[in-house]
Amino acid sequence: MKIKSLLFLFFISRFSVFGQDEVLKKLDSKADFYGDIARQIWANPELGYLETNSSALLQKTLSDAGFKVTAGVAEIPTAFVAEYGSGKPVIGIMAEFDALPGVSQEASPFRKPIVEGGAGHACGHHLFGAASVASGIAVMDWMKENNIKGTLRVYGTPAEEGGGGKVYIARAGLIKDVDVMMHWHPGSQNAAGATSSLANISAKFRFYGEASHAAAAPERGKSALDAVEAMNFMVNLMREHVPMETRMHYVITRGGEAPNVVPAFAESYQYVRHPNALVVQQIFERMVKTAEAAALGTQTRMEYEVINGVYNLLPNETLAKIMHKNLEAIGGVTYSPEEKKFAEDIIKTYPAGVKSTPEDAAKIAPFIVSETGGGGSTDVGDISWLVPTVGLNTATWVPGTSAHTWQAVAAGGMSIGQKGMMVAAKTLTLTAMDIFKDPSVTGKALEELNKRRGDDFVYEALVGDRKAPLDYRK
C-alpha cells in the first residue's frame, strides 16, 4: 500500500511539474526571447511573398526547438510547415509575418517614419508569427514531457495582406488531415468570440492605349488614364446600388509617365468586399463590366488579373468557447507607468470621437457569436470553411488604435506589443492543450462546421486556378 501511494504521489507530482502552470512559467521565462524575434522582424519589414528573412528566422527557431520543418510548400518560397508528433488529433497553428507598404514608423508615440514611404508592420504580423511559434514550441515541449499523442503543426503563411497565402496552402492539400486550426491577430482589445469577416476579391485592371504628344497631336492619342478614371467613376456610381454592407476601394498604381504624353498604359488596383462570398463574386462581375465599358468608351484595350480572393471567416462556437475561457484565465495587458504614458500620448493622436483609455487593455471583451462579417478580410476565411477554425485578438496596440496605421506600428515595436503577443501565445497554448487532452472536441467542432457550411458545400477558391501572385508587391 505504501509503495502504491508513493507511485501515485510521484505521478501526480510529475504531471503537475509539466502541467499548465509550468508551461505558462516557461513561456514567461522566454518572453524576451520571443520578443526579440518579433522585434527583428519588425525592424526588417518584408512585404507579401518577399518575407525571406522573416520566414527563415521563424523556421530556424522551430527547427532548433525540435520541429521537422518543410520549406517552400505550395510553390511559395516563404511558406513552410513545421511538424511534431504523429497520429490524431492534428492541430495546426497559423503564423503570419508580412508587412504593409508605406507605413514605416519608429517605436514612438509621435509620427516618425524610419524610412519615408517605407514598409512597416501596421497589422502586427511580426507579433503574430512570433507568438504562434512560441505557442507551438510550448505545446511541443508539453507533449514530449507528458507523452501526449497526436500531431502538432505550425504553418508559416505568407502574404496575408492581399496575397492570400493560405488559399494556396489549402488548395495544395496541406490541411486536409487537420482537425483544428488556430490563429490570432494583433489588435487594440482582447477578444475570443465566434465572429466572422468580409469575403474579398481584388484585381488589377490594366488599360492599354496609344501615346502621343498631349499638346501637338492629342487627337492621335488614346489615353489609358482616361480609361482608369472612367472605370473608377463608374465603380463609385455603383456604391449606391450594391448591398449596404459592401466595401469597394482602389488605388491607381500607374497613371502615366508625364503630363505632356498621352498615357499608353495605366492600372487600377480594386478591392470589393462583402460578408458573403457569393455576393462578392456577383459585384466583382459588375466591376469587370465597368472596366469593359471604360475601355470601349476610350478606345483602349483592357485586361485584368485577379490578385486575391478570400472567403468570409466561418465562426466555430464550439472551439471559441474554449479559447474564450482560456483568454479569461490568462487576462489582458497591464501597463507599466512608462507604457501608460506612451499610451496616453498615442491616444492624443486619435481623431475626435475615439474614446479609449490605457486601462482598456486589461479588459476581456464579452463572448459573442456573429456570422455577420465586419471590418477587414483574411485568408483565414478559406481555412475556416475547410477545417474547424478558432482565433482571438489581443491588445498589442494601444486601445482605440486602428489597424494599418503608424500608431499600430509604434506600439507593435515596443513592450506593449510584446505583452499582448504573450497573452496570445499563452491562450493558444492552453487551447491546444485542452484539445489534445480531450480530442472528442474535434468531432463536435466538425459537426458544427458541417452545419454552418451546409451539406452541399464544395470548396472552390475565389482565385480560380491561378498560382500564388509572388510578384504582386514588386
Automatic annotation (TrEMBL):
Keywords: Hydrolase. InterPro entries: Amidohydrolase, Aminobenzoyl-glu_utiliz_pB, Bact_exopeptidase_dim_dom, Peptidase_M20, Peptidase_M20/M20A_hydrolases, Peptidase_M20_dimer. GO terms for biological process: folic acid catabolic process. Residues 201-295 form the Peptidase M20 dimerisation domain. One of its GO terms (cellular component) is cytoplasm. It holds the Pfam family M20_dimer. It comes from the Bacteria. Gene3D superfamilies: 3.30.70.360, Zn peptidases. One of its GO terms (molecular function) is dipeptidase activity. This is Aminobenzoyl-glutamate utilization protein B.
